[in-house]
Each structure stands twice: as C-alpha cells, then as structure tokens.
Amino acid sequence: MSPIYVILIINIIVWTGIFFYLLRTDNEIKKLRKRIERLSSKNIKTGNNQ
Amino acid sequence: MIFLKFLLYVWMVLVLLGAFFYAPLAKGLGEYTRVMYFHVPMAWITTLTFLIGAIYSILYLRKKDIRYDYYSETANQLGLLFALLATITGSIWAKMSWGAFWNWDPRETSIFILLLIYAAYFALRSAIEQQDRKAALSAVYDILAFVTVPFFIFIVPRIYSSLHPDPLINTQGKVTMNGKMQLVFFNSLLAFTMVYFWMLKNKLEVIKLKMKLKQLES
Amino acid sequence: MIKAYYIFRKDLLQEFKTRFAMNAILLFAVVTLSAVSFAIGTFTARQEVLSALLWIILFFSSMSGLSHIFVKEEEAKTADTLKLVASASAIFLGKFLFNIVLLFLLEIIVVPLFIALMNFNVQNYLLLFFTLFIGSFGLAGGGTMVAAIISKSGAKGALFTVLSFPILLPVLVSGISATKIASQEQGWMTAYSELQTLFAFSVVIITASILLFDFVWNE
After folding, report:
1. Contact B212/A8, CB-based, under 8 Å?
2. What is the ipTM of this complex?
3. Where residue B165 falls among pLDDT bands split at 50, 70, 90?
4. Is chain C touching chain B, with at least 3 CB–CB pairs below 8 Å?
5. Chain B residues close to C197, C-beta within 8 Å
6. Which of B150, B182, B184 lies closest to B168, judged by CA?
C-alpha cells in the first residue's frame, strides 16, 4: 500500500469527522430553536412577556 | 436540506479522490502538487472570512447592535483558523518546492503579518471588559487593520520579488494547470467554500438563538 | 481647522512644561542607539543591516512616546472637557500634528547621530530625507489612531506596540527598502515604488483614521 492511500484515507476520515460534527451542531440548533419556541409560547400564555 | 448536506459530503469525497488520483501531477513538483488543492482554498477562505468580519465591524459601527460584534468576532475566529491552515499547507509546499519550511518569502511574510494582526485583535478584545466599548474599539481596529491588508497582499510582493505562483500577482503563473487539474481545482475551491459557509452559518445561528434565549429568560 | 491648531498649541505648551513625551522618546532612542552601537562594536555592518536598524530604532522609540498624547488626557480626566470644546476630527488632527512634530524632532536628533556613530554611508541625502518625511506621516497617523484605541482600553501601554506593529509594517518595510537604496546609489528611479507605497499608505491610514476616530473618541 503506497503512502498516498494512507494520506487519502486520513483525509477522508478527517472530513467525515468534520461533517458529522457540523450535522450535530445542526441538530443542536434545532433543539435550541424548539426550546425558544416553547419558552415564548409559555410567556404569552401566562402573560409575563416583559 | 439534509439531502444537500450529504451531497456536499459525497462531493468533497470526490474532490479528495480527484486530488489524489484523477488530477495529473505538475512538472517539477511531483506528488506535492496535491497540496495545491488544499492550500489555495484555505487562502481564499481566509481572505473571504476576514472580509466578512470587516463588513460586520462596519455594520456594528453603523447600527450599534451588539449582535454584529459577535458576528465579526466569529468570522475573525474562523479566519484565524483558516489562516493557520493556509500557513501550514503553504509551508509544506514551500518545503518541497523551495527547500525550506520557512524562508520569509513576501507571501509567507504577509500571511505571518495577517496572523499577527488578528492575534492583536483578539488581544485587544481580551483587554477590555466593558461590552460596548470592547465592541466599538475592536471594530475600529478590525477596519483599520483590514485597510492595511491590501498593502501586504499586493504591494509588498511587488517590492520584494516573490517566488510564489499566483495568478493575481504574476500573470505568467509558475504552475500551469491543464483541464483535469483545473476541474479538480475549481471543484475543490467551491466545495471548501460551501463547507466554510455552513460552519459560519451554524456559528452565527447559535449566537442569534443564544441572545434570544437570554432575552426570554431574563 | 483652527480648533485643530488650538489643540496642537495647547499640547505643545503642556509638553514644554513637563517635557515628558520628548524626554521619553529621545532618551529611548539614544539608549537603543548606544545599545546597537555597542553590540556592533568597531566593525562596520552592511548597509542593509544599518538601514533596517535605523528604522527599528525610530519605530520603537516613537512607540514609547506616541501613546502619551491620549493616555494623559484619560489619566487627567480632561478627555470629556475636550469633547465639549472641539469636534472629533479637529482633536485627531491636533493630536496628529503634535505627534508628527515629535517624530520630526526625534529624526532630527537621531538620524545624524546614527550616521555619525554607525558609519552609515548615504549617497542620496535628499532621498533619505524624503523617505523619512513621508514615513513619519504614516507612522504618526497609525500611531495616533492606535494610541486613541489604547487610551480607551484597560491595558495602557502594554498593548500599544503589539497593536501598532502589524498596522505600521508597510511603512517599516518600504522605509527600510528606500533607505537601503538611498545608501547605495544616487538615482531616484529605483526607489520610486517604495516612495509610492509610503505615500499611498500614509494617505490611506490618515483618511481611515479621521473617518474612524469619531467612534473611538465618543465611546
């Protein structure tokens, strides 16, 4: 196995890591958004918006 | 949306495969041609993100909205990261084509100065405690620094002759690319830019949502 | 414009009373000059090295004094009064004028001393003079602006050199290059692009500073 394959595999592994990290942050953003929605709707219901 | 992201994943893998197998090697550079497909996108993204940071700084001074200060800080953080990556990949390339990792070529000097400027920017940020004062002063410094950047990129290499191949500076670029190389090169440039914008978008989104959350909880 | 002159005169009068900035900057320059002179010793260094040394001495001694102009206003708490009297750009111009006079004074004393002590051979005195003249504008412009930023931040002095060095580096690089040319040949044409850079940089940095100073000063 020539060293160029090793480098390629390392590159792909690094890229996969970055990719899944970004996907995870995407999910966290979604969660955060839901939480904010819930909070703001609760505030409107109880009437203590400010 | 998620489909597009997986498409980006496949695209980047294809770019990597292309960089390592598909593209032919340049004369005289051997296997080290492949660094080009990573070095140039990094350098391009560095300029792009510092430009975005400077634009957010101007926006902050205009609107006095603290959100823009966080945005420009984020863009500059990413810029520092990509500048470091560009320096490292460039240094590897320099070792192979010029014989040393570091020899103060004007290009190397200018990226070094760029790192120094933004390190100073973050040093300034850490020195000030008041939030609005920190935002205003660092925005001013960011713009002032960005104004001087063209001098490093365009003017200093003209005074000291550079060996750096660059279509922007010397029209007879020393690395001439054929069709296959160009294909991989521009695909790599685009794919990396996409990844960068994804990163930036996520970071800005988190800042925006956190500010909203704070507002709701208080 | 007239207000800028008044501020300049006020700072000058104040300076004559205490001579703080002048003493700091000149003594710093003399100390560095003698340190360099001792280090090099009796043999003559190459012209390239000498022109770089001249600019390093000028740069670091100006860094020791230029920030004083704004820091003293903050320390004496006179900044707010000044704000009432004049507009931001008038204040900037006044302070800038003062700093440039300080730099000229520094150069008048240090450069002849440097030429005498270090055996620095100058072929084209007019070019050297011209380079120093335009270079001072760039140094003073960037230095004054960074001084204003520094005076508003918590860490006074410690950050000044760190912040101004990368911004002022084009002045240093092209100044060193032009000085080297002045020491090696008679002609002007070879130094053309350096002088152009110095001039363009000075114009850009002074314009940007005047535009941005308002945001720093009223913070």
Report:
1. no
2. 0.85
3. low
4. yes
5. 151, 155-156, 159
6. B150
